[in-house]
Amino acid sequence: MEEPSQKILDFLKNVALFTCPLVAYVLLFKSTQRAGRQQGYYSIPGWNFFLKKWWVQWKLRQLQPQPQLQSPLAAFIVSQGDEDREKLQTLVKEHEVDSLTIRGTDHKGNAICLRVTRKRHNITEVWLHVQLEDGSVYQLPEHPDTVLQGDNRTSWSGGGLKFKMCEPMRIWRITFNGLLRRGVKEKRNMEDNENDRIHHVQFRFIWTCCSDVIDIQRDWSTALISDALAREPWRNGNWMKMRKQLGEGYDQWGTLQGTWTLVSDGSTTRELYLRGIRQRRYGTDDAVWQRRAVSYVGVTTDGSMFSIEARCNNKPGITHAIFGHVYQPNGCQASVYSCDLSLPNLGEHSDSIPQHVMLRFSAGRKNYTASLHTLPNNIPTLYGGRPWTYEAGIFLFRCTLNDKQGAGTAVFWYRYSGPSPAVMPLSLPILKEPHLRTENLFPLVVDLKDRECSCSALVGGKGSALALMTSLDKNQLSAVIPPGFCVTVAALEMQMQQNSQLQGAVAALQFECSAGRELGVIQEQCTKTVALFESTAVCEAVSCEVSSHLQNLLDSVCEPHLFAVRSSAVGEDTEDLSSAGQNKTLLGVCGELTNLLEAIQSCWASLYSLQSVQYRRQFGQPVQVGMGIVVQQMVPADSAGVLFTWHPSTGDPRQMLITANFGLGESVVSAQVEPDTVVLERDRTGRVVPKESICGNKGHRVIMSAKGGLMAEPLQNEKGSQLCLTEEEALRVGRLGLQLEQMFGGPRDIEWAISNGQIYLLQSRPITSFDSWSKFELLHEFDDPIITDTEFLTTANTGEVFPGLMTPLTQSVTRRAADLSVRHQFPDRPGYYYSANVITASYHAMFNVFNSLLVSVGSEVTLGEKVVDLALYGHPVTTLELLQLSAERNGVVGSLGKLYVVLDMVKNTLFRKQVLQQAEKLTHEFLLDCQSYNKAEDLYSCISNSFKYLDEVSNCHGKSSKISVFTQVIAVSILTEGREELTAEHYSDMGLLLSSCSDLVSAGIPVALEDLASSIIATDKARDFCTVLPSEAVHWLEENYPSVATKLQRFLDKYGHRCIKEFELMTETWGMNPEILLKTLQTMVQNAVTDKFQKTTTKQVTDKELLLQLKTVKKHGTRVVLGWLLPLCRSAVWQREANKDCYITIIHQLRLAYRHLAQLMVKEGRIPDAQLMFFFTHYELGVLLQTRDPVLITKALHRRRYQHEWKQLAFPEIIRGLPVPVSKEPLKASGGSGTVGVRLQGTPVCSGTVMGRACVVRSLEQIGELTHGDILITHSTDVGWSPYFPLLEGVVTELGGLISHGAVVAREYGLPCIVGCQDATRIFSTGDTVLLVGAMGTVERINKYKDQKATASD
């Protein structure tokens, strides 16, 4: 029986268990905080602050979703989530907005702040603020007012500023072509007569990400959220609604690289490289609930970047919320979880923004102190909303972040209630195409006044534009559109459905085009198809509809009844594709049904003329497309011509260009005469004034014939020397252009006519040339981000793996795989949106040393780092300065860290066989049967799914390379016997040790070729073999010596996937094109016939003999340890080569798959030729399969056009900061190319001394100059050079280390070889006599080649 005291205790415990939650509930939710503790407008922590904060943190941790780990495949493939995240938001509710901001700075004083905010009712707010290092500030002329009107449904654009996504979450393009004001307009001063401050400016930037995404809701620190929420009075779950007030969106760090051109100042262009942030926000407009906000974005010299935002919302709401994150130069990011920013003490009003601010914040377990100093310039103020609801001050600041200098931009946002424009300025309507439901039956003929006629998919681009202008009220447009109707796309479809011959002709034409026939064959089929269309009568249904509309038109117009019949293909006259003049236009067609139907037949037929078909094929459009036809009353023009609302040559929006002649405009558009030229100038208010008029040598005019058609009429002398337009008429045409430009939202190319004083509009299309990609943009489009101006890059190793120029496809596939192979060795590194290890610069591959090789460093240069230098560069590179910079980025590794690294490498070394087995298993499992695919889209999906094999095998290769270098570090550590400094003898001894590595894949290739050559030499027709064309040599061997042909086939089966530039997907391998091999075989056989060729024999040396040859080893124990270690070094090198062979095998399978994909895309009419495939990225190919985007085709064509020029670019071995090309030309200075006795020092990798003829190969095109007995001097070699090694007496390379390809094969052949011999290809010339001393690592010119022709060609 329980004691009474125990019962009392149990009772009290139960009461406590019930009371405590009740008290907590009251404290948390029922406390009204009547005292309302505040500091001005801001709520400050109350007495129950910490309890509320704890409660919110606990709930948020339960609600916060777990971050999803990215797959390595994100390096190759854009996920659907990324696609969806980048899509434009559909604005449904009244106050919904969608904004994109890009901010960037450098340390010279250049800064940029760009923002486009999409709102409902065609309202766009644009911030454009640019500050240059000379202190000049540029803004839109409309600023401080940011409100613009225009169609914003499908693009980020406004005021001439455009944001264009190139690859989701990775690459964006930012362009501007228009007018900017130099200087800042005073607040609220809406008058600006200082036209001399208005300049024509063009800038183009490529924004490239350098970080993962920071999501506002997901990555907002729970500590800061709970702090903000716990300050406010709330009941029940109201705090959850407050949390959403920060909005939705994300941030991402990146770099801006581009050009700024001040066209008004003689086209002065400067290149800029900025670092900063891209910010996306969507949801409810800030002006609805926000009271004020502050945003700081800073960038420091060491590559760190920070963003701190603070917001105060209207009550009830969060009055003091802070959000922020920090980017570290090693790519890691962390959310700010503590910050001392106090909004009440930081610029509470717009006239009290402080000049100096000190911020302290914490992120990623690191404390930061930022000292911010505003630069001494006026803070420009921008206003938004209508009427104005906010003002925003933008300024540049200098900062110090933890002793690192930096710069950045700040934005102070305030609610505004002062004077402003009360309503939107009167504006013309925005012309938009209507959306037609596809389930409805489309009419065969529609009137220009019909709503359906405004749809380009139904009537084509030309008809749609005319219908949109026809829909305007008379008082909205100062011109008349001649009446007419459109024959729709559905009419052409019906015509073909009812005529099987037409279907057959078009199908035959499609087949000839997809089969890649010669132009003559395609032209013949085009001629047949055109003739068939012209001779096939219009079907009855279409004829009846045309007759009905024609009769209505005749009843409504006066004589003469002459009409213009114009082709209007789907896809033409758009911003991406003009198609001007590709299809037929017939003028002066008599208004009888028979004549009109014949004209319609002729227009349909022109769709399949050779020029029209080839134009579409050139831009990846299908052979068979829809076409509408516009039928309009002809205007008996007194004068006519073309108006460009922006100057077509300079793109200057202040100048309008008119070309015109008497009579019809046909003489102008077909360039029959030299027309009159009138240049108009306009200001921002829309006032147009004449600037220049030039009378052309017109000669004649074109007029309508009363019997139909057109005729040329000579102009009298006095009339020919007169302008065809009066000044007033020119001004009226100019004002009309301004109206259309505003309605369509961009510059226009307008055809017009004047008859009896009335202006008629005949056509209007966008000017497509202003958005074309510049050469600079195309060259740097895929450049990976350079985070600091002290970045340490190198072309060593990458110059061997990716020599010279990479195609876009290669850099998006195999180069990214190479980056992943390094990235996998550091599993704690962030995501896969960008490459940080093996990077691209101007289509050339480079290593970022700080992110890959110098990650785990100490305070002193160790022997291990010296050996890594030897293996990678072939000479010492690492210095104390580099170690210090690396330590600032990656931290200093302590003793335990070093021990962990060593133990991890020991583990990897012990399990190296499993790594090779994994690679071989992947190669065996990787079966890409590309020939079984008949649809390009299916094969593309298959290739995308196969990237997991490429990623895994690249990881195996990365591990094996790491193991190989580790064994070398151990071997050299023992070889030096405690000495820290490495000498040439150490290099020679290390090369001697590695020379015992045999049975390597790369070394086996020349041995097999020698065996083939010996087999041919043993026949009685060796001389005949040497005279056969290489392209016919295989067939010759099959007919004359089947056994040798079989041996050659076995060689190709084993090594046919190898070649020069084998990581380049565009390269043809030996198996695909054996001509290169056969040329080498013929040279070897020819030398044997003339007694110059001897089969290479290598003397087999025992390990004991090898160790006795080591010069630097003094101790017997050292030789014993090296004897034990030698098999390990051999095994590591051999397995590295074997892993690489598996790697190349998978790359070759992808190469074959892409080539088949190219054939399928040509067959489907998506690309004009198969070779163009390699000038797209993998992502672009996917877009092209979905959209047939002609802009992508144009970019690829331009990339291919510039390929030869970009091939000439060369980069030094060591690069600091932004990569800058160096000259490939031979050196002319003293001691340079012309000096006898000049000697260069390299790193010895194989001993021996030889004197002979130098063959300097600076590009692959010169490789045919190699002859037997040459000493090869080149930039670098790879496996593809192996067939030439039997011809050589020595090798000198500018790049390379102990285990580079040239070193490996040279040791196998016993060829004297030195690597890392900088500038050798620029100092020596082909034909020089040189002395190569392998043991000393020197090459010296003994005699200069005298043949001037050879020297010039070299």
TrEMBL record:
InterPro entries per record: ATP_grasp_subdomain_1 (IPR013815), PEP-util_enz_mobile_dom (IPR008279), PEP_Utilizing_Enz (IPR051549), Phosphohistidine_dom_sf (IPR036637), PPDK_AMP/ATP-bd (IPR002192)
What is a GO molecular function of this protein? Answer: kinase activity
Which stretches make up the PEP-utilising enzyme mobile domain? 1267-1336
Domain (Pyruvate phosphate dikinase AMP/ATP-binding) spans 457-770
Query: Transmembrane ranges?
Result: none
- Which family is annotated? Belongs to the PEP-utilizing enzyme family.
Query: What PANTHER family would the database entry show?
Result: PHOSPHOENOLPYRUVATE SYNTHASE-RELATED, PPDK_N DOMAIN-CONTAINING PROTEIN
What is this protein called in UniProt?
Phosphoenolpyruvate synthase
The species is Cryptotermes secundus
